[in-house]
Amino acid sequence: xxxxxxxxxxxxxxxxxxxxxxxxxxxxxxxxxxxxxxxxxxxxxxxxxxxxxxxxxxxxxxxxxxxxxxxxxxxxxxxxxxxxxxxxxxxxxxxxxxxxxxxxxxxxxxxxxxxxxxxxxxxxxxxxxxxxxxxxxxxxxxxxxxxxxxxxxxxxxxxxxxxxxxxxxxxxxxxxxxxxxxxxxxxxxxxxxxxxxxxxxxxxxxxxxxxxxxxxxxxxxxxxxxxxxxxxxxxxxxxxxxxxxxxxxxxxxxxxxxxxxxxxxxxxxxxxxxxxxxxxxxxxxxxxxxxxxxxxxxxxxxxxxxxxxxxxxxxxxxxxxxxxxxxxxxxxxxxxxxxxxxxxxxxxxxxxxxxxxxxxxxxxxxxxxxxxxxxxxxxxxxxxxxxxxxxxxxxxxxxxxxxxxxxxxxxxxxxxxxxxxxxxxxxxxxxxxxxxxxxxxxxxxxxxxxxxxxxxxxxxxxxxxxxxxxxxxxxxxxxxxxxxxxxxxxxxxxxxxxxx
Length: 500
Known about the structure:
Low-confidence stretches: none
Number of strands: 22
Largest sheet: 7 strands, mixed
CATH superfamily of the largest domain: Aldehyde Dehydrogenase, Chain A, domain 1
Radius of gyration: 24 Å
CATH topology of the largest domain: Aldehyde Dehydrogenase, Chain A, domain 1
Number of helices: 14
Strand order of the largest sheet: 15-16-17-14-13-19-20
CATH class of the largest domain: Alpha Beta
CATH architecture of the largest domain: 3-Layer(aba) Sandwich
Shape: globular
């Protein structure tokens, strides 16, 4: 990496901005040109211990703060994110390569989540129900769990942390968060909005570093009672195994291999618009990216020809250039991994329609760029049909009919997002019923989650929990049941209410 003006980043533990306890640093590069952007603390278990201690110490006062008051801090944080949106977007574009337009959308999702989570401070509902005995009532209410460990990925360095951290906070938990080492400043700027909004010291602690050093220490820490992770399925399984030994509550959001089914009666231009955005938006670096086009019957030739024509017009380049359609891949390692999948797909019999080569000349050669790539006639059950690429690569699988399309859509280990394009409402509703996925879109791409709806998947995409909407508030709280007997005597449930 070449170095220009290089920032030094920090952890935030309690009220203090600090480096790693042992002084180590990690380099953060710009994927657009390979330059060195910043150096962040390369923290260790020692730093995690300090952060967890700070979170534990802050828990009593924070959990005793009325939930509506906790929500008001999130409203103020949302307002600060509105003010700082462009500044954070600029940092995000440089750190992980997201186009400015999409970086602003990333931050907007966090803003939307702040508005929603702030309101939930007045909606942490319990239940009441009739007792089976006279002069007795039963009710439930929600209580915070304790210290929450949060580990997030680089591709949505503000939006995804907001899905986890904001509900955890409004529910009364304190947080130790490891942002991605690929986008540490983006994460820190998000957290700074919360601190500047009045979040007390120790309620949110940020520890920078690598997953195997910081993330593993968070997962294994005995005082971290609840964990939430977004990343690969392989790492998620390891986290679940470790956390299971401690009986910790865990939420996992993992991989995806998302299909779009295009039926012969579909509006082809609408489908092409959606597939291009779903497959190549954020350079395909989304867990919900459209990875597979399942073309039914004679629509295949029409849709592939139009996709290739449009894909070749997409401009690859700097995420700071408003004319660019596709920014860089996050790092060189991932770039080579993506290209390896394309080479393997061709070796297994797929036809390369467009793209498929790492740029070696001009400005693109200095960064980690990959062109929009389409492979046709990918065989069901092949590597490209089954494994997550996480790049701007679309695999086209041709099938004979709707039933075969559903079988192919469901053959993968994942089940996050999915889509069908058709004018037939009956087929659309059958797809909604039959596709094994947590999300199904009709006549829309596989990306585009909204903050007030649950987000998550089935099978190896996660462990059953959901983020977004009303569901994380259930995850981040314990339910306490209370019985109040005002009869003045001993009443025995299941005994005194029976006459036989």
